[in-house]
Design the sequence.
């Protein structure tokens, strides 16, 4: 999920404040597929990601493209409005109660010596790594991927060279959205969805991405790991209810001393 | 007085006077409901103006302004609850605390070159910090909430800010008008020009010798301190504070909607924006009622759509085109 | 029907009413306008909409009981304090003579101030923060226990259960959500516990963030404390999360003693299936043996067959019951008269456990008793106190691995 945000910001330079809400949307889609077709969430990953890709692509083309060169606060407003609409549509359509998916492995756990590891999380983590690897390969090795990276590095240059930047931006947003879709599907295997969970995830995504480095995929992965560990440690060593504070503390430190994030590139 | 009014188009003055007169007599013929709504509008207009100083004038996007509202509110409220200290005195503590908080954020951000989106996220982090921190802060009752003892509503005690909604309305009105005048004075002062330069082109400004750090800091501190006052009034109007609610990011977003929709960097923008947005929300609710739609969430969807429309088609906000239409174009810049 | 017939009918009705020997019937023919304020959207939407179910079934039952009709005006507080206040003002401006609401303590406080200022009675359905009825209000009434009372009954019921089953944990770990309710409960816990001789001692207290998405750390900590039983104050989502963690981390406590919402809610039972059986919840509940309860259950089941009757429905219903009862006794819609009538309320034939509904000088119903319920076979049974119970408690809880 953070990967998606990283890609979107790194390339399109738009801060997606509707990120979490889009993920909630993905989760509801996964739920629908599960209820209707009994598809396991990790299998739904592909169709849900595809659906979100289309959503992201269209969103970018229709609404966001005109905003690329507008000041940050306009972009922010746009996506806040989108988030608001998404959340309340979800409330109307799905109702406010938490809904979840129960798979065969929902309650399994593996025991590795003294450690007990949650099976569902392991599967989801594995899926996440596969998606990350696929994304990485895409950006490294395909022509399209390279074109997108070119846009990120140098907007003017890309235009000069003849790349259809607007379409590539839409594509990128679509890819970012697809990541979100995948994340939503994976998350459905672990937690329940309500219309209200969007905002917390948007915030989390930002914390992770900034800590790890905007525009760097390894950074997003690293950031996710780091934040997860920090919160867990903070919870164990200090007061659990304040563990988010540690994540924010880390964020502030990163912002101050290494704003491009731990693995980010120097150009912002 | 003459200096204050110098350069203001006559039409604008007349309009402002008319609006002010209307607002002064409003409580006499308004129902309790309209009064409550009016208070909200004025509150958001006031806080919006405070925020606008940081953003519109100095170009720093703060998405964690609820930090100052909360700090200001808690400082005065806690002093009142624990020591019976009048909010006018507690205000001093609130101002100091918020100015300090703003200064800290400013120093951290500007010394380390955190700008734009990153600055915005820094402000979010601080607000979240406060939210979680105050949840554990037992002197202000933490997450069980700080309740102010409520006296009778029969008499208006201005010193302790205990009284009828009408009293609060006039207080808020005074604050909003005051803020308007302050912003006006600031804009046309030398500092206002420096801010404009910093906003439009920081490098050029620096090249011309403008001390970026100092003026950005001043904007942040003024903005924070002004917001604190809003927080104090809020605390005494509602008589209860919960960290979860007052420091929440949704409140930060709420209070910047007005200036953005109204027009960032303009004087009347935040006021027009607050009026429009609250009016829109209440209007939509009325509409839903009339149409018999009782589905929760529908109003917010339409609200979001309206926001979307404004942001897309009126990128500078509602006020600039409105001002042009009313023939209130300022002579020189802006 | 054409206009002539219509007017003729109206004339007949008018004549019938005028000729009626009971003049007072005329006054009662007007309905009482009740403004119901609930968070129907926003973060608390789930609970607000659930409370509203209590409103929907109320009309039919109140009519059957012979109470005068209520005209319900709904207001959505949108889980926001500003909106709550504005809505309350609006409802009063639109003619509401009585308010009911609003679940959230912060929003309820704002509404209470409006009610007090405008002299319109407010009947609080659900909100446990003690300060609301400590402000000296004359127009605010609460038919819901405060946190200290919930705690007091929790201990009493626990003792009863331990003696009935002959089982009691020697050590407990206390986990609570770090929000208004959770902290209030935790603060009162030790104080109230000292008034009882409980067989266990609390070896660790763990607080967690209400917005937490993952509680594996907290549960691990709890398990590591070596306690025999788990005492909980949580919300619905946390309850599900924690139960999942209990299963995954392979910890089978002797008992789960919950003193808050979550562990008995429909979503919990539905999501966890047979893994949801066993936890004991010490909460404000209903008395299954009372006559009105059976009536409410029947109506509720007819309207919502998939949803168990719960606290939200019951107390919202009772708030409307108080309103209707006060209206009947006052015989007028004047808010001041209504407030006086409410203060004199004495309804013995009600749904919640205890001697009935009545209010003390502060406007609080301090005679409410709280129950202990247990999840069994996907349903809920009341196991304590004995005179309000319909089943026997099962302790220890069947280990998760054996289900």
Sequence:
């Amino acid at each position: 999920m953070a990967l998606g945000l990283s890609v979107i910001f790194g390339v399109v330079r738009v801060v997606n404040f509707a990120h979490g809400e889009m993920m909630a949307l993905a989760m509801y889609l996964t739920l629908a597929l599960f209820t209707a077709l009994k598809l396991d969430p990790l299998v739904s990953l592909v169709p849900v990601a595809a659906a979100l890709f289309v959503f992201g692509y269209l969103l970018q083309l229709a609404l966001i493209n005109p905003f690329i060169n507008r000041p940050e606060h306009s972009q922010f407003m746009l996506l806040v409005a989108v988030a608001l609409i998404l959340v309340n549509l979800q409330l109307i359509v799905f109702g406010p109660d938490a809904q979840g998916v129960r798979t065969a492995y929902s309650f399994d756990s593996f025991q590795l010596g003294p450690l007990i590891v949650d099976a569902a999380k392991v599967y989801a983590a594995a899926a996440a790594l596969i998606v990350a690897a696929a994304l990485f390969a895409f950006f490294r090795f395909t022509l399209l991927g390279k074109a997108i990276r070119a846009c990120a590095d140098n907007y003017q240059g890309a235009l000069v060279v003849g790349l259809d930047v607007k379409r590539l931006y839409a594509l990128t947003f679509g890819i970012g959205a697809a990541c979100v879709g995948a994340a939503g599907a994976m998350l459905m295997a672990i937690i329940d969805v309500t219309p209200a969970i969007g905002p917390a995830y948007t915030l989390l995504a930002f914390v992770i991405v900034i800590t790890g480095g905007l525009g760097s995929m390894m950074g997003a992965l690293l950031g996710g790991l780091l934040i997860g560990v920090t919160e867990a440690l903070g919870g164990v060593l200090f007061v659990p209810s304040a563990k988010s504070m540690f994540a924010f503390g880390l964020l502030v430190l990163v912002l101050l001393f290494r704003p491009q994030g731990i693995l980010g590139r120097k150009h912002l | 007085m003459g200096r204050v009014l110098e350069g203001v188009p006559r039409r604008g003055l007349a309009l402002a006077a008319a609006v002010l007169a209307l607002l002064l007599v409003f409580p006499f013929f308004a129902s309790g409901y309209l009064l409550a709504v009016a208070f909200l509008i004025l509150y958001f207009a006031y806080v919006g103006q405070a925020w606008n100083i940081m953003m519109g004038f100095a170009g720093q996007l703060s998405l964690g302004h609820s930090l100052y509202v909360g700090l200001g509110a808690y400082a005065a409220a806690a002093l009142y609850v624990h020591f019976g200290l009048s909010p006018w005195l507690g205000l001093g503590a609130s101002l100091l605390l918020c100015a300090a908080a703003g200064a800290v954020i400013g120093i951290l951000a500007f010394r380390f070159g955190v700008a734009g989106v990153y600055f915005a996220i820094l402000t979010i982090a601080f607000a979240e910090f406060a939210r979680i921190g105050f949840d554990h802060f037992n002197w202000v009752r933490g997450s069980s909430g700080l309740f102010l003892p409520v006296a009778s509503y029969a008499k208006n005690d201005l010193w302790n800010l205990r009284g009828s909604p009408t009293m609060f309305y006039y207080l808020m009105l005074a604050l909003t008008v005051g803020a308007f005048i302050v912003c006006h004075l600031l804009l046309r002062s030398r500092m206002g020009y420096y801010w404009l330069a910093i906003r439009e082109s920081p490098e050029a400004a620096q090249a011309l010798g403008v001390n970026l750090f100092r003026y950005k800091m001043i904007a942040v501190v003024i903005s924070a301190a002004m917001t604190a006052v809003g927080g104090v009034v809020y605390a005494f109007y509602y008589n209860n504070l919960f960290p979860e609610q007052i420091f929440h990011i949704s409140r930060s977003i709420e209070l910047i909607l007005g200036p953005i929709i109204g027009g960032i960097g303009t004087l009347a923008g935040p006021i027009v924006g607050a009026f429009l947005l609250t009016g829109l929300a209440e209007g939509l609710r009325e509409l839903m009622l009339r149409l018999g739609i009782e589905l929760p969430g529908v109003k917010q969807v339409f609200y979001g759509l309206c926001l979307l429309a404004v942001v897309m088609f009126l990128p500078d906000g509602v006020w600039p085109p409105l001002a042009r239409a009313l023939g209130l174009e300022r002579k020189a810049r802006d | 029907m054409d206009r002539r017939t219509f007017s003729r009918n109206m004339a007949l009705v008018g004549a019938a009413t005028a000729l009626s020997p009971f003049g007072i019937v005329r006054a009662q023919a007007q309905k009482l306008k009740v403004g119901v304020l609930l968070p129907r959207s926003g973060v608390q939407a789930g609970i607000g909409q659930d409370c509203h179910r209590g409103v929907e079934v109320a009309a039919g039952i109140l009519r059957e009981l012979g109470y005068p009709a209520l005209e319900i005006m709904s207001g959505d507080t949108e889980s926001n304090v500003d909106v709550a206040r504005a809505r309350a003002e609006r409802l009063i401006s639109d003619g509401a003579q009585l308010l009911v609401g609003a679940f959230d303590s912060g929003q309820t406080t704002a509404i209470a101030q409006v009610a007090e200022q405008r002299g319109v009675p407010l009947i609080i359905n659900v909100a446990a923060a003690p300060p609301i009825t400590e402000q000296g209000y004359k127009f605010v009434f609460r038919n819901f226990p405060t946190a200290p009372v919930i705690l007091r009954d929790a201990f009493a019921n626990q003792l009863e259960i331990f003696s009935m089953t002959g089982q009691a944990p020697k050590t407990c770990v206390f986990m609570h959500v770090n929000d208004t309710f959770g902290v209030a409960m935790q603060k009162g816990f030790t104080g109230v516990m000292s008034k009882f001789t409980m067989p266990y001692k609390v070896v660790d207290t763990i607080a967690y963030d209400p917005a937490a998405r993952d509680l594996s750390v907290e549960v691990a900590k709890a398990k590591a404390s070596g306690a025999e039983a788990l005492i909980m104050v949580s919300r619905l989502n946390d309850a599900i999360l924690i139960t999942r963690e209990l299963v995954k981390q392979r910890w089978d406590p002797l008992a789960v003693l919950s003193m808050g919402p979550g562990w008995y809610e429909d979503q919990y039972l539905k999501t966890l299936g047979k893994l949801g059986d066993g936890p004991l919840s010490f909460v404000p509940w209903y008395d299954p043996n009372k006559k009105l309860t059976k009536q409410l259950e029947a109506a509720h089941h007819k309207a919502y067959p998939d949803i168990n009757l719960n606290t939200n429905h019951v107390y919202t219903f009772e708030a409307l019951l108080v309103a209707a009862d006060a209206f009947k006794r006052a015989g007028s819609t004047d808010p001041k008269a209504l407030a006086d009538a409410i203060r004199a309320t004495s309804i013995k034939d009600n749904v919640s456990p205890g001697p009935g509904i009545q209010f003390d000088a502060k406007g609080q119903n301090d005679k409410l008793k709280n129950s202990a319920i247990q999840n069994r076979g996907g349903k809920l049974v009341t196991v304590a106190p004995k005179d309000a119970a319909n089943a026997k408690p099962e302790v220890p809880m069947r280990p998760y691995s054996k289900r």
In short: DSSP finds 15 helices and two strands in chain B.
